[in-house]
Design brief:
about 160 residues, alpha/beta
Length: about 160
């Protein structure tokens, strides 16, 4: 599948079991609520191989559910060179994610690699990996992802 302008988004974090899964789930659900999800290819991936084949961290799904969102059934996978053909927008959550994404990105790629925090405070907000922390870190991550995904959708929503 070739990149469809403004029609595909990939969220990428270290393991693909916390931040990227949360952003993917939020974008999917918000796009469904607004009636344009079927126009988009929405996915998430990891920069590492640590969690390939794993379901989301239980705290990720617990946090989605606590916020009245659907639990994710995503299976973790690693970003591939093909993703740079398939996705227009590729988001990382911190400088390490961005660096690792750009390391894989083919020079011919037209994909936009962006910090998710572009849609956050000051245009460069970092979403810290909550994996090694407590529930409060997952709550903070969720709040950031929800706010940033809403801002991104406001920019790309059809008719805007």
């Amino acid at each position: 599948m070739a990149v469809a302008a403004n029609k595909s988004v990939l969220f990428v974090c270290l393991g693909n079991i916390c931040r990227s899964v949360t952003a993917e789930a939020l974008f999917q659900e918000m796009a469904e609520e607004k009636g344009f999800a079927s126009d988009w290819r929405i996915d998430s991936a990891a920069t590492s191989t640590y969690e390939i084949g794993s379901l989301p961290d239980s705290r990720t799904n617990d946090t989605l559910e606590k916020n009245k969102r659907k639990r994710s059934k995503h299976i973790a996978r690693q970003i591939t060179k093909k993703d740079f053909t398939d996705f227009h927008y590729i988001f990382g959550f911190d400088s390490s994610n961005i660096s690792n994404i750009n390391r894989v990105k083919p020079s011919s790629s037209k994909s936009e690699v962006l910090l998710m925090g572009k849609y956050g405070k000051n245009g460069n907000e970092i979403v810290q990996d909550p994996y090694y922390y407590d529930q409060a870190a997952f709550d903070t991550m969720y709040e950031q992802c929800e706010r940033m995904v809403k801002a991104f959708i406001a920019e790309v929503e059809p008719g805007k």
